[in-house]
Amino acid sequence: MLMKHATGLVLDEVFTRHRTGPHHPESPERLRAVEQALSQSGLLNRCERIDPVPIDRNLLQSNHSETYIRRLEEACHRGEGFIDTPDSLIGPETFDVAILAAGTVVQAVRQVATGQLQNAFCAVRPPGHHAEYDHSMGFCMFNNVAIAARSLLNEHGLERILILDWDVHHGNGTQHAFEEDPRVFFCSFHGHPATLYPGTGYEHERGRGAGEGTTLNIPMW
């Protein structure tokens, strides 16, 4: 039984099965480092584990085109080395792991939204904030956070959501997913787009149409 005041934790060995090869910065070792730090701090056993679950295909299509989803699935099963860009490395299990990453983040936010958990921390791979509607970018396959936000809007009737993205690189995929949606405020702290990948996230990017004013980019240097 879940404890209502517990912090949920998504951290599972299955997410290490997305293989990126030696020397790639987005490697399984990232999760092992997270697990070690949580264990040493005593936090690991104080959290409520959330088991991996696959994403519903219809929910996945709320943020990504069916053509892209199928393209990624087929590329992984054919044994191709990357998708769309050489830095988005893939392996035979990448698609299945990405499906679990997106689905488990959705499961975590559902449990928070329904009061089963107070909050949740999701350590999943592949990451997501660079993933666009119809292509991969920057190590990212599916935009896990954007999909989770859509589940909260569509299933739980939330009227406003804040996504705070703190990373050296701008979360272009998440911004583009909601830049015309006034229900989602996207705020990003990142390095300056004039010198850092992916070259988006300038101060003047504030959303479009009905979503104008609900995007806030704060380049830090």
Task: Give the helix/strand layout.
Layout (H helix, E strand, L loop, with lengths): L6 E4 L18 H13 L6 E2 L7 H4 L5 H13 L3 E2 L1 E5 L4 H20 L5 E4 L21 H12 L5 E6 L5 H7 L5 E7 L24 E5 L2
Parallel strand pairs: 1-2, 1-5, 6-7, 7-8
Antiparallel strand pairs: 3-4
Protein described:
There is one protein chain. The protein has 221 residues and is of the alpha/beta class. It contains six helices and eight strands, in the order βαβααββαβαβαββ. The chain has helices at residues 29-41, 57-60, 66-78, 94-113, 144-155, 172-178; strands at 7-10, 48-49, 82-83, 85-89, 119-122, 161-166, 184-190, 215-219. The strands form three sheets. The protein has a three-stranded parallel beta sheet, covered by helices on one side. The protein has a three-stranded parallel beta sheet with strand order 6-7-8, with helices on one face. The N and C termini lie far apart (46 Å). The mean pLDDT is 96.
